[in-house]
Amino acid sequence: MSLTNHKMFYVSWEAFHRASRELAAKLLTGRYQRILAVSRGGLVPATILARELNIRLLDTICIASYQHDKQGDLSVLKGCDWQDDETLLIVDDLVDTGETAKVIKQQFPKATLATVYAKPQGKPLVDVYVTDIEQDTWIQLPWDTELSYSAPLVEQQG
Asked: What pLDDT band is residue 77 in, cutting at 50, 70 and 90?
């Protein structure tokens, strides 16, 4: 996936925190005892959910599917041998094409998969999410960006 033909959606730390807390509110009725974060994108929302849901047991499953701005082959770098049941909450930042979610659902079909953002292709695989994102939109998450000076428009001309 190249960024040249995609819309960009920039997310601030505050907006991401707010959306992650909204996700936690949707999960309050669950009986979750463990959180499995999909590394790396799921680490931040998993930490927020762990606090908001008062869950102390966390682990990671490490699946690589992106290289900066390009989607590539899926690679499981670290698995998890936790028992699959209804007390397991799996957290990722987003579901895009659903390829990562398919791998997770195969291993943990009874667990709840929650994401902050969901694109149409992957949305059917997610149990709980907060925000719909168009398929052709690239999300710039706060840990991938930094603030910098922006010159006034009048200085940008010419």
From this structure: confident
Distance between CA atoms of 105 and 119, rounded to whole angstroms? 17
Which is the catalytic residue, given 59, 73, 84, 96?
96
User: What is the per-residue pLDDT across 58-67, written as a single tens digit (0 to 9) for each?
Assistant: 999 988 765 5
**What is the total residue count of the chain?**
158
The active-site residue, picked from 92, 127, 132, 144, is: 92
Active site includes 96?
Answer: yes
Nearest 10 degrees: Cα torsion 138, 140, 144, 145: 130
Coil, helix or strand at residue 3 = helix
Q: Is 92 a catalytic residue?
A: yes
DSSP 8-state secondary structure symbol assigned to residue 4: G
Q: What is the pTM of this model?
A: 0.85
Query: Is 93 marked active-site?
Result: yes
Q: Checking DSSP bridges between strand 88-95 and strand 57-67, what pairing results, if any?
A: unpaired
